[in-house]
Amino acid sequence: MPHAPQQADVATAELDTALRGGPFHVALRAAIAARGLPLQRVQHHLTRYGVKVGVTSLSYWQQGARRPQRPESLRAVRALEEILRLPDESLIRLLADADEHSAAGRPAVRSYRSLVQASDVLRGLLAELDCPPGGGLHVLGHHERVLIGARRELAGRESQHIVRAHRDGVDRFVAVHHGDPGCAPERMTVHALENCRTGRIRRHHATGVLVAELLFDTRLRAGDTFLFQHGVEDGTAGTTREYVREFASAGGQYALQVRFDAGTLPVRCHRFTQASAAAPRSGRRELPVSERHRSVHLVEPRVRSGTVGVGWDWE
After folding, report:
1. Are the CB atoms for 164 and 156 separated by under 8 Å?
2. Which CATH code for domain 112-313?
């Protein structure tokens, strides 16, 4: 039987190879084996980082049966890099590479890596505004109108929200706008259109994220409903090929209308859903483009956590 030092050398060599070439689950399994940690100990270490992940999920991850997808899971991956003494971004990079490889041949969209970065940035911006998750509001309905301009760019959008307070004293909502790659958040403008006024606005150029505080002129009590509307002028990026809306949790109705400039109608449109940035897209269905109304739309009677969106082909 090989001596323990020889076994350790083999495990280290396997880990080095897996970190260079992946895939993610092989690298994770090799890292856990190289450190000699049972999954229960890995889970215990994660709780010390404030991250809750079950032993079953860890087992699925290292078997390749599932991939980390939700923001909490991605935070766990970053913590695992420290717990297992791995180089920064080594596991995250393998997730990103796998996502970009599976996206070959699809229209250019934000990469998995950029979405992970944007998620981290968004948490920081919300913390600056002292905004807890949900903000004390449950969204009953969200109706969104998106305008695609003459240059085939995301020109802007308007959103109408119907919300219900689930605690006393709620007097604001924090809206999030994620521009297309190459956008300039510092040139975007936020408009309070109905039953609200703009408060603090935070922007992050590298990720294209903008968050805006929308202030109500009343303090809601638990159970109160409220309706308000706001808009964002964008138009700062290049050609856009899709519009997506992410939902952190299940909620009320969502309706999306995409309207195109008269001179720039796409040749095809479709709707899609995605459980997370790391998951494959599904639920694809063609949407007819109305030449008269120059628009397409979708309605989700009750949204689920994940992403829903509309994509299109220009030619």
Report:
1. no
2. 2.60.40
Q: Read off the pLDDT of residues 80-120 as tens digits, 9 standing for 90 and up.
A: 999 999 988 888 888 765 544 444 444 335 544 455 556 77
Strand order in the sheet with 242-247: 242-247, 306-313, 268-274, 281-287
3-state SS, the chain, equals CCCHHHHHHHHHHHHHHHHHHCCHHHHHHHHHHHHCCCHHHHHHHHHHCCCCCCHHHHHHHHHCCCCCCCHHHHHHHHHHHHHCCCCCCHHHHHHHHHHHHHCCCCCCCCCHHHHHHHHHHHHHHHHHCCCCCCCCEEEEEEEEEEEECCCCCEEEEEEEEEEEECCCCEEEEEEEEECCCCCCHHHCEEEEEECCEEEEEEEECCCCEEEEEEEEEEEECCCCEEEEEEEEECCCCCCCCEEEEEECCCCCEEEEEEEECCCCCCCEEEEEEECCCCCCEEEEEEECCECCCCEEEEEECCCCCEEEEEEEECC
Q: How far apart are CA 306 and CA 275, in angstroms?
A: 4
Does the structure show a pLDDT above 90 at 312? yes
Cα–Cα dist 11/93, whole Å: 21
Domain boundaries, the chain: 4-100, 112-313
State pTM to two decimals: 0.64
Length of the chain, in residues = 315
Q: Are 160 and 177 in contact (CB under 8 A)?
A: no
